[in-house]
Amino acid sequence: MKSTEEFMPAIEACLHNAEKLIVAAKASAGPGSYHIAFHLATMALEEIGKSSMIFLDALDRKPAIGDEEAKTPLKWVDDHERKLFWAIWLPGRENLRDWRTIPAAMEFARVIHKDRLDTLYVNPASLNGPTISEQRAKSIITAADARLNMERVKQFRDMGKDEQDLMHWFFAAMDDPRLKPMIFSKASLDKQAEFGDDFGAWMKWLRDTLAEADRKSMELTDLEMKRIPAKGEEGWQDKFEIKIRLKAWSHSIRQNQFKEWNARIDKLKLASGSDRNELVVTLLIPKLVATQDLWNMGWQNTYVFVTALNIGTMGFFWWYTPEYISRYFEKVRDIEHESDVLIDRVPMLKIEWPHQALKAPNLNNVSIVYSFIAQANQQEFESTRRYFRNLGLMAKNDIFFQFEPTIFIEFISALKDAMTAYGDWDGKPETAEASIIAFFEGISATPEFTEMVRDFLQIVNQMIANKMAPRVITLDDVVKAKLVFDIYFRMKSQRWYMDELANS
Predict the structure, then answer these.
(1) Comparing C-alpha atoms, which of 166, 152, 245, 156 is closest to residue 199?
(2) Would you call the peptide bond into 447 cis, given omega within 30 degrees of 0 as the criterion?
(3) Of 225, 309, 389, 454, whose CB has the highest number of CB atoms within 10 Å?
């Protein structure tokens, strides 16, 4: 954490600029210029919000060296709605101290930004110039003035090491797609309201609760991996070992991340392979499994694990990668000039995954998905079979046979199968779009994400009806369609897991 001397000058500069913008807003708040006053007051609110982001950035202790790009609150300093949110939502102040008010504050910030854009410039399609009401302009000026005064009386202090460690954990958890839904769950926010202004107590409760959830997750996975009834202790002694090697397209592999998994999971061990993109999976099969059942037993466990690995990490792991993604020849040579010619297909048939390491928290999420799949009924199981087959098509996609349209359709179809199996859609074509969009809106997906899902559903319908796509389907579309399935299945897994914890 930075000291107050390091971050206070930047905060003061933001507040000073906000003050000047408010003065200008008041001066311009007259007939014909209320839209300008509104814009200036909105800018003042953004500067106030930026000051809060500077403070949050000072609290967020960056990792020393890591595989992933360091994330910081100031990374979003150019996001107008985010700055407005931090100006509007003020934890620890009267009725706004409750984190359950976050959705309303986010919507209010969105509306302010939209009104500012709608009224700042002339719309060529309209005969009238930009206008905004006197009441609307003066209400924003009053709000900016009040917030500035509140910021002026704030007092900052340096945090102790324990507080810094807790804050650092909280920022990391907020950036973890596995933990974020749990942090903003109803039970968590109700607990935050119960603690009131003591945010430290709430964060400590969160950390302890999620740590206990991780511990139980590993225990639950271990139980799921022992579903076959043992015939005495001797029956559980290891008899066979099945080893597979997976290529990680989306993650780099580090041996030190498997320590907890290997300590807790009895019959499935993980290790790094010959390079940073190879994962070695070892299945230990006990004596009670007859030799004639060995192949099926191994395949069933492998299928469930690989499926859970792909969903749990939102990445891509398979046995092999396609070799011919840019050329069909060994080499091309210019005979006249006696030199090799470098020519390749552009773009290559290669997915550019963001660089990230496979870490222990990812594996905890994999264990939840694994357990969720393992207890599925036949209809639920079939949706993940379709997903698994589609992973195989992704691995076979090369210049000789491109499957992008087929893979795209199959991921969306697997999503529909899963939503039908788990009761989130009645299976009727006329209700598909409304049901699927309602689910993602229910988990607070961004408007951009839900619009993408809607677009994908409509494209698939056209492809099926017309036997052709309305536009070119790319590998980027394929990856996004996979992620839509991953997000749905992870949310279902996490809800099931929380129910299991509550009933245990």
Answers:
(1) 166
(2) no
(3) 309
For the CA atoms of the chain, what is the radius of gyration?
27
CATH code for the domain of 55: 1.20.120
Range of the domain at 38: 4-158
Residue 434 lies in a domain: no
Distant-in-sequence contacts of 226-235, Cβ < 8 A, 24+ apart: 226/266, 226/267, 227/374, 228/286, 228/288, 228/289, 228/297, 230/286, 230/288, 231/288, 234/287, 235/286, 235/287, 235/288
Q: Could you tell me if residue 143 is inside a domain?
A: yes
pLDDT bracket for residue 456 (50, 70, 90)? very high
Q: Is the pLDDT of residue 219 over 60?
A: no
Q: How many other C-beta atoms lie within 10 A of the C-beta of residue 389?
A: 12
Find where tokens 């199981």 sit. 381
Rounded distance, CA 165 to CA 183, Å? 18
pLDDT value for 94: 40
* CB-CB neighbours of 24 under 10 Å: 16
Q: Give a yes or no: residue 228 inside a domain.
A: no
Give me the residue label for tokens 């960056």: 62
Q: Is residue 127 over pLDDT 90? A: no
Please work out, in degrees rounded to the nearest 5, the angle formed at the alpha carbon of residue 432 by the alpha carbons of 431 and 436: 115
The dihedral built from the CA positions of residue 434, 440, 442 and 446, taken in this order, carries a sign that is negative
Measured between alpha carbons, how far is 225 from 233 in angstroms, rounded to an integer? Answer: 16
Instruction: Report yes or no: 289 and 238 within 8 Å, Cβ to Cβ.
Output: no
Six token digits for residue 423: 């009761």
The confidence score (pLDDT) of residue 419 equals 95
Q: Which two tokens stand for residue 185?
A: 């769950």
Q: How far apart are CA 127 and CA 119, in angstroms?
A: 13
- Name the nearest CA neighbour of 490 among 304, 336, 366: 366
Q: In angstroms, rounded to a whole number, what is the distance separating the alpha carbons of residues 84 and 76? A: 12
pLDDT beyond 90 at 48: no
Segment 448-462 mean pLDDT: 93
Give the DSSP letter of residue 158: P
Residue 69 lies in a domain: yes
DSSP 61: P
Identity of the residue numbered 233: E
DSSP string computed for 209-243: HHHHHHHHHHHHHHHHTT-SPPSHHHHTSEEEEEE
The total of structural domains in the chain comes to: 1
CB 10 within 8 Å of CB 54: yes
Q: What is the pLDDT of residue 40?
A: 92
State the Cα–Cα distance between residues 21 and 49, nearest whole angstrom: 14
